[in-house]
Specification:
The complex is a heterotrimer of chains A (about 425), B (about 300) and C (about 280). Chain A is of the alpha/beta class and about 425 residues long. Chain A folds into 2 domains: about 190 residues, 3-Layer(aba) Sandwich (D-Maltodextrin-Binding Protein, domain 2); about 200 residues, 3-Layer(aba) Sandwich (D-Maltodextrin-Binding Protein, domain 2). The radius of gyration of chain A is 23 Å and the shape is globular. By secondary structure, chain B is mainly α. Helices cover about 75% and strands about 0% of the residues of chain B. Chain B is built from 14 helices and no strands. In chain B, helix 2 packs antiparallel against helix 14 and helix 11 packs antiparallel against helix 14. The relative contact order of chain B is 0.12. Chain C has 2 domains: about 55 residues, no CATH class; about 210 residues, MetI-like fold. Chain C has about 280 residues and is an all-alpha fold. The relative contact order of chain C is 0.14. The chains are: A alpha/beta (about 425), B mainly alpha (about 300), C mainly alpha (about 280). Chains in contact: A-B, A-C, B-C. Chain A: This is Sugar ABC transporter substrate-binding protein.
C-alpha cells in the first residue's frame, strides 16, 4: 500500500500536467469486448437481461459482452463521471429525457446509420423523434411507460360505474365525475401522487394540446395559456373544489399510495403501467383491480419518455455494439424485457406478441394499446428543460397543488422561470 | 496526582530543549499524512477552486475559458441559491446543535456504570451502521401519511388528531428532515464524546467532589473544560458535514415541497451534475467555503484560545 | 460519584428513550426483511409479520453476489481503517504537541477540504487515479477513503492528544524515559479510546461509502456492498423493500459486531493505569 502511495506521488511529480490518455490498452487480437450497463432491477427483468447476455456470449465468441448492473438513482452521476474520465461503458440503458443532454455534449454515437431498417420500421416515428437530437439518433427506444388509471373494481361496481374497454377512454370530464361518485366518507375517488409533478403535468398536458414550450423566431419560450392550464386546473379542482382527490396523497411518489389504495381509501390511482406489477405482487387476497385506459382530453396523446439503449461515442466497437443491441431488442426479446419490467414495448411485433402470450390479462391489452397514443412533446427537446423543471416548475406546481398559489401565479412563475433558464 | 502538580515546574527548560531537538522528527511524523492529502486532496481542490473562475461545462472536447468574477456577479443575483443557502444554515445549525446536545447526554449516560451499557453502546451505533441506501427509504416509511410508523403510533396511542402529512406539509417538512439528520449523525458525535469523557482525569472529579462540588458544578468546572478540545473539533466537523450533506434529504423530499428543503449543496450538485455547469457550481462552492470558513473562524478562534489558555 | 436511586432510575428511562429513538429503524428493518410483499403495503403495519418468510433473504443472496460484495467491503474498510490510524496518529501527535506553521496550515486545509462540495472533486480525482492506473482497483478506492477519513482522524486525534495533560508526559520524561517510551507507556494507553473512535469512523465510513465505490470500480467482481445493495432500488425511488431490507441487515451486522468488540476499549484508557507507569 505504501509503495502504491509512493508510486502515486512520484507519478504525479513527474508528469501530471494534462496528458489525458492513460490506460489505452487497445488489443488487436482476441474477441471484441463490450461493457453493457443495464438498469434492470425487477426480478424477472434481471433474469431476462442476464439470460440474453449469456446466450449472446455463447453464440458470439468473437463479441463478448460484460454485463454490468447499475441503478436508476445513480446512473446519471456514474455516466457523467465516466464520460468525463473517458471510461464509459460501450452500451448503456437510460431514458430519452436524460440522453438528450449527453447527446448534445457529444458523448453519444449517432445511431442513424447503424440501426437496421427492420428495427427502424418496428418503432413509430413519434417515438424515434424522442431520441433524435439535432438530427442524430442518440439511442434505440425500447420500453415505454404510459399513464393509465388503476381502479378498485369493487368500489367501481358499488358506484355502478362500468369499466371502459381498451381504446374506449373516458374523457377528463367523465373521469372527474366518476371520481366524485366514488368519493364517500373514508374514501377519496382519486389519489394523485405528485411528488415529482412536472413530468406528470407535461405528459398529460398533451391531452389538451398544452405544449408549454413555443418557438418564437428561433428562440424557445415558455407560454402558459388555456391549453396549458387545463391539467393543473382539473387536478386542483379535484383536490380543493370537489374534494374528490386526497390532498395528503399529493406529496407521495411512486408506490406510496398503495397502502391506501389496497385499504379502499382511494378508489382510483392514476399512474404508470408498471404499477400493475405491484397489483399482482402486493394486492391483498380478494382485492380486485382493473386497468382503465388513459384519460383523454381533445386527444389521448401523452408524452413518451422511452427507456433507451445508447452507444458511447468513445466506444471502439460501435458496429459490434449495435449488433448486440439489435439482437437484444429483436421482437421476442423485447417482449420478454417489457414483460419483466411491466412496461410497454416500442416494437409493434413485440407488442402483438405480448398481448398474445399474456392473453391480454393483467391489463396488458390496455397497456399495449396505449402505446399508440405516445408521442413526442415539445419539452423533450428543449435545452435547459431539466434546469427549468427542478428550479422553477416543480416548486411552483407543488405550491399550486398545495393550494398556496393561484393558477395565474403558477402561470407567471412558469413563464418567469423560462425567461431565466432559456436565455 | 500531587507529585504531578509539583514536579514539572522545576525541570521545564530541560524538557523544552529536548522538544526543540525533535523538530525534524515532527516533520517525519507529519509526512505520511501530508503526502496523500496533497496528492488526492490539494490537487483536486485547487482545480475545483480554479473552475469557479471559468465557464467550464460538461461536454466532450469543450473549451473552457477564464471568466474572472463573471460567475460571482451572476451568483449575487441568484435568489434561488440564496434562499437555499438560508435553508442550509437553518438545517446545519439545527442539526449540529441538536446532535451535540443529544449526543452529549447519551455519552454521559453511556459512561455511567449502568447495566446493559455494552448493548446500549452498540445500539447507539445503529444509525451509522445502517447502509445509507435504506436509511432514507426507512424514514420515508416512518413519515408516510397513510401507513407511516409515526402516524400509526399516534393512532394506536389514541392521538389521531396529531396525525400529519409530515414530509408533504410545507411547515413540517424541514423539521421532519432535520430530525432524520440528527438521528443519522448522532453516533459519531456520541462515540467521540464518550471517548473524550474517558480521558477526563478521574482525580479531578474526585478532588472536586471532596471540595463539595455538586454533580452539576463538577460537570461545568471539570468535565466540560477538559473536554473542550474534543467538543470544538467534533462540533466544527459536524457543522461542516451537515452543511455539506444532501443525500438523505434528496431521498426524503428531493428539495420539496415547494423548495422548502432545498439545501445549498443539493443546489450545487444539480448545477454540476444535472445541468453540467461545472464552472458555476464551483463558484457556488467557493462562496460557500468562504462564508462557512468565516463563521468557523470566529467560533474556532474563541474556543481554541480558551482551550489553550 | 454514586448516583441516588431516583437519579439511577431516571438514567435508565433516558437510556431507554435513546435506544428506542436510535434503534427502531433497525428493528423495523429486521421485521421488514421477514415480511412477504403483501404485508409491506398494509395500512396498519405490524411489527411481527403475520406470515414470516425467508424468501427475501433467498432472493437477495441468489440475485446479487452479496457474499462477495461483503468480502470486498470488508477488505477495503479494514485496510482503510488501519491505514488511516497509522498515518494519522503520528501526525496528530505532532500537530497537538508542537506548534509549527506547517501544522497550522495542515489543520486549516483539512477543514477546508471537507467544506468544498465533494461532487466537484470527483472528476479531478478520477483523472488523477486514472493517470496512475488505480481506477478499477481496490487500492485506489482505499487511497481515496484514507484521504477522506484523514481530516476527521487528524482533528479528533489531535484533540485527544491535547486532552492528555502535558504534565504526565513531562513527569515521565523527568523519570528518564525516552520519548518513545513516553509515547508507548503514557500516551498510547490514554489515546486508546480516541484511536478506537477514529478507526471505527474510518471503518464505517468506508463500509458505507457509495459514490466513489460506484464511480471508481467498474468490474462487477470488485463492487462493494453499498453499490450492490443500491441495485434493489429502481425507478422513482421505488425499492424492492424485502430483499433490500434483508441485504441491508446483513450489511449492518458486521459493523455492529466490530463495534461490540471495540466498545470496551472506548473507556479503557483510565488515567489511573497510566500514572503507575
Amino acid at each position: 500500500m505504501l509503495r502504491k502511495l509512493a508510486a502515486v506521488s512520484v507519478a504525479l511529480l513527474i508528469g501530471l500536467s494534462g496528458c489525458g490518455d492513460g490506460g489505452d490498452e487497445e488489443t488487436t487480437e482476441g474477441p471484441v469486448k463490450l461493457r453493457f450497463l443495464s438498469l434492470a432491477w425487477q426480478k424477472d427483468s434481471l433474469a431476462a437481461n442476464r439470460e440474453l447476455v449469456d446466450k449472446w456470449n455463447a453464440e458470439h465468441p468473437d463479441i463478448q459482452v460484460e454485463y454490468v448492473q447499475g441503478d436508476w438513482n445513480s446512473v446519471h452521476d456514474q455516466l457523467l463521471t465516466s464520460f468525463e474520465g473517458g471510461d464509459a461503458p460501450d452500451i448503456f440503458q437510460y431514458e430519452s429525457a436524460a440522453i438528450g443532454e449527453f447527446a448534445k455534449q457529444g458523448y453519444l454515437a449517432d445511431l442513424s446509420s447503424l440501426v437496421s431498417s427492420d428495427l427502424k420500421g418496428e418503432i413509430s416515428d413519434g417515438i424515434w423523434k424522442t431520441v433524435t437530437f439535432d438530427g442524430k439518433v442518440a439511442g434505440v427506444p425500447f420500453l415505454l411507460e404510459s399513464q393509465v388509471v388503476l381502479a378498485n373494481k369493487k368500489l367501481l361496481d358499488a358506484a355502478s360505474i362500468t369499466v371502459p374497454a381498451a381504446g374506449q377512454s373516458w374523457t377528463w370530464d367523465e373521469f372527474q365525475a366518476n371520481a366524485q361518485k366514488l368519493t364517500k366518507s373514508g374514501t377519496y375517488g382519486v389519489a394523485w401522487a405528485l411528488k415529482s409533478p412536472t413530468n406528470r403535468v407535461m405528459n398529460l398536458s398533451l391531452n389538451f394540446d398544452g405544449k408549454f414550450f413555443y418557438d418564437n423566431g428561433g428562440k424557445t419560450e415558455v407560454k402558459v395559456g388555456d391549453p396549458e392550464k387545463e391539467i393543473p386546473r382539473r387536478i386542483h379542482d379535484m383536490l380543493y373544489v370537489t374534494k374528490s382527490a386526497s390532498p395528503d396523497a399529493v406529496g407521495m411518489g411512486g408506490t406510496d399510495p398503495l397502502p391506501g389504495f389496497f385499504a379502499g381509501k382511494y378508489a382510483m390511482l392514476p399512474g404508470g403501467v408498471f404499477l400493475r406489477q405491484q397489483m399482482v405482487e402486493q394486492a391483498p387476497a380478494g382485492f380486485e383491480w382493473v386497468t382503465l385506459p388513459p384519460i383523454k382530453g381533445v386527444s389521448a396523446s401523452q408524452a413518451a419518455n422511452p427507456q433507451t439503449l445508447s452507444i458511447s461515442e468513445d466506444s471502439k466497437a460501435k458496429k459490434q455494439a449495435m449488433q448486440f443491441v439489435e439482437y437484444f431488442l429483436n421482437p421476442a426479446n423485447m417482449a420478454r424485457l417489457a414483460q419483466g419490467d411491466w412496461l410497454v414495448p416500442t416494437g409493434k411485433k413485440a407488442g402483438a406478441e405480448l398481448v398474445t402470450s399474456t392473453g391480454g390479462k393483467q391489463g396488458w391489452d390496455v397497456a399495449v394499446a396505449s402505446a399508440g397514443d405516445l408521442t413526442i412533446a415539445p419539452f423533450q427537446t428543449v435545452d435547459g428543460y431539466p434546469e427549468w423543471k427542478t428550479k422553477y416548475a416543480t416548486p411552483a406546481l407543488q405550491q399550486y397543488f398545495a393550494n398556496k398559489i393561484t393558477l395565474d401565479q403558477l402561470g407567471t412563475q412558469l413563464v418567469d422561470g423560462g425567461k431565466q433558464v432559456l436565455r | 496526582m500531587t507529585t504531578l502538580a509539583e514536579a514539572p515546574s522545576a525541570n521545564k527548560p530541560d524538557y523544552k530543549a529536548r522538544a526543540r531537538s525533535d523538530r525534524t522528527t515532527i516533520y517525519l511524523l507529519l509526512l505520511p499524512a501530508l503526502l496523500p492529502i496533497v496528492v488526492l486532496s490539494v490537487i483536486p481542490l485547487m482545480r475545483g477552486i480554479y473552475l469557479g473562475f471559468t465557464d467550464a461545462r460538461a461536454g466532450r472536447n469543450v473549451d473552457t475559458n477564464f471568466t474572472g468574477v463573471e460567475n460571482y456577479r451572476e451568483l449575487m443575483n441568484d435568489d434561488l441559491f440564496w434562499s437555499a443557502f438560508r435553508i442550509g444554515l437553518v438545517w446545519a445549525f439545527a442539526v449540529t446543535i441538536l446532535q451535540f446536545v443529544l449526543a452529549f447526554g447519551l455519552a454521559l449516560l453511556l459512561s455511567q456504570p449502568l447495566k446493559f451499557r455494552g448493548f446500549a453502546r452498540v445500539m447507539a451505533l445503529v444509525p451509522w451502521a445502517m447502509p445509507p441506501v435504506i436509511v432514507g427509504i426507512m424514514w420515508r416509511l416512518v413519515y408516510h401519511p397513510d401507513a407511516g410508523l409515526l402516524n400509526e403510533v399516534l393512532y394506536r396511542g389514541g392521538a389521531e388528531g396529531l396525525q400529519h402529512n409530515w414530509l408533504g406539509d410545507f411547515s413540517t417538512a424541514l423539521p421532519a428532515v432535520i430530525m432524520v439528520g440528527v438521528w443519522s449523525g448522532m453516533p459519531q458525535t456520541t462515540i467521540v464524546l464518550l471517548a473524550g469523557l474517558s480521558g477526563v482525569p478521574r482525580e479531578l472529579h474526585e478532588a472536586a467532589a471532596v471540595d463539595g462540588a455538586t454533580a452539576w458544578q463538577r460537570f461545568r468546572s471539570v468535565t466540560v473544560p477538559s473536554l473542550m478540545p474534543v467538543i470544538v473539533a467534533i462540533t466544527s466537523l459536524d457543522f461542516i458535514w451537515n452543511f455539506n450533506s444532501f443525500g438523505l434529504v434528496y431521498v426524503l423530499t428531493a428539495g420539496g415541497p415547494g423548495g422548502r428543503t432545498m439545501l445549498p449543496m443539493l443546489f450545487a450538485y444539480e448545477e454540476a451534475f444535472r445541468y453540467g455547469n461545472y464552472g458555476y457550481a464551483a463558484a457556488l462552492g467557493n462562496v460557500m467555503v468562504v462564508i462557512i470558513v468565516a463563521l468557523l473562524a470566529v467560533y474556532l478562534r474563541r474556543r481554541l484560545r480558551e482551550a489553550n489558555a | 460519584m454514586k448516583a441516588s436511586r431516583t437519579a439511577r432510575a431516571f438514567q435508565y428511562v433516558a437510556l431507554l428513550v435513546y435506544m428506542v429513538f436510535l434503534g427502531f429503524p433497525l428493528v423495523w428493518m429486521l421485521s421488514t426483511s421477514f415480511k412477504p410483499p403483501r404485508e409491506m403495503v398494509e395500512i396498519h403495519p405490524t411489527l411481527i409479520p403475520h406470515n414470516p418468510t425467508l424468501d427475501n433473504y433467498v432472493e437477495a443472496f441468489t440475485e446479487q453476489e452479496l457474499g462477495r460484495a461483503a468480502l470486498n467491503s470488508l477488505q477495503v474498510s479494514l485496510a482503510s481503517a488501519v491505514l488511516t490510524v497509522l498515518i494519522a496518529l503520528p501526525a496528530a501527535y505532532a500537530l497537538a504537541r508542537f506548534k509549527t506553521k506547517l501544522g497550522t496550515a495542515a489543520l486549516g486545509w483539512v477543514l477546508l477540504s471537507q467544506l468544498f462540495p465533494f461532487v466537484l472533486l470527483v472528476i479531478p480525482l478520477f483523472l488523477i487515479l486514472r493517470q496512475v492506473d488505480l481506477v478499477n482497483t481496490h487500492a485506489g478506492l482505499i487511497l481515496v477513503y484514507v484521504v477522506w477519513a484523514l481530516p476527521f482522524a487528524l482533528w479528533m486525534l489531535q484533540g485527544f492528544v491535547r486532552n492528555i495533560p502535558r504534565e504526565l508526559e513531562e513527569a515521565a520524561a523527568v523519570d528518564g524515559a525516552t520519548r518513545l517510551q513516553v509515547l508507548r507507556r503514557v500516551v498510547a494507553p490514554l489515546l486508546a479510546p480516541g484511536v478506537v473512535a477514529t478507526s471505527l469512523f474510518a471503518f464505517i465510513s468506508a463500509w458505507n461509502e457509495f459514490f466513489f465505490a460506484l464511480v471508481l470500480l467498474k468490474s462487477p467482481d470488485l463492487a462493494t456492498l453499498p453499490v450492490t445493495l443500491a441495485r434493489f432500488v429502481g425507478v422513482e425511488g421505488i425499492a424492492r423493500l424485502g430483499p433490500l431490507a434483508a441485504g441491508s441487515l446483513m450489511a449492518t451486522i458486521p459493523s455492529l459486531i466490530f463495534f461490540a468488540f471495540l466498545q470496551r476499549r472506548l473507556t479503557s484508557g483510565s488515567l489511573a493505569g497510566a500514572v503507575k507507569g
